[in-house]
Write a structure and sequence with these properties.
5 strands; 5 helices; elongated; 179 residues; 50% helix; three-stranded mixed sheet; Alpha-Beta Plaits
Length: 179
Amino acid sequence: MNSIWRLLLFVYNLLLIIVSGLLIAAAVGRPEPLTYIEIALSTTQNRIITGVVGILLLILGIYVFISTIKLESKVKSVEVDRTLVGEVSITIPAINVIIMKAVKKVEGIKDVKPVVKSRPDGLEVYLHMMINPDVSVPELSKNVQDVVRKHLEDIGGLKVAVVKVLVDDLSPGIRTSTS
C-alpha cells in the first residue's frame, strides 16, 4: 500500500474517531455536538462543504470495505517451461519438497519453514530456519542459499531470483531428562 493511501486511511480513521466521539458525547447529553452540527448546516455553503466531505468519506469507506473483502488469488503453480507443444508447471507444494530435500543436505539445521512467491524475474524463496547454536550463521546461510538455488534450478528447472534466510532460533534442542 503506497503512502497516499496510508495517508487517506489515516485521515479516514481520524474522522471516524472524531464522529464516534461526537456521537458518544451527544448520547451522554452534551450539547456541543448538536451545536457543531447546527453550525455545519447553517448556511448553504457549509451544507455543500459538509456534503462533499460526506461523499468523499463514503467513497473512501466503500473502497476500504471492498479492498478488505477482495480475495487475492494465490499462485498455486509456477510455469517451468512453455513451448509450442505445451507448458510445464510445478506446484508450490512440490517446490517446497525440493527445498526441504535440499536443506537436509546442510548440517546444523533443526527446522526450516519455506515460503515461495513467484515474481516475473524468478522465484522468491524465504527460509525461516532454526539452527544449532554451534554453527556459523553466515556460513550456514550461504550454504543453504546455494544448495536451495542449485536444487530448484537443477531438479525443478526453475529460475530463482532470490533466496532469503531468516535465522530465528539458536537455542539447543529440547532434551528430555530421564530421572
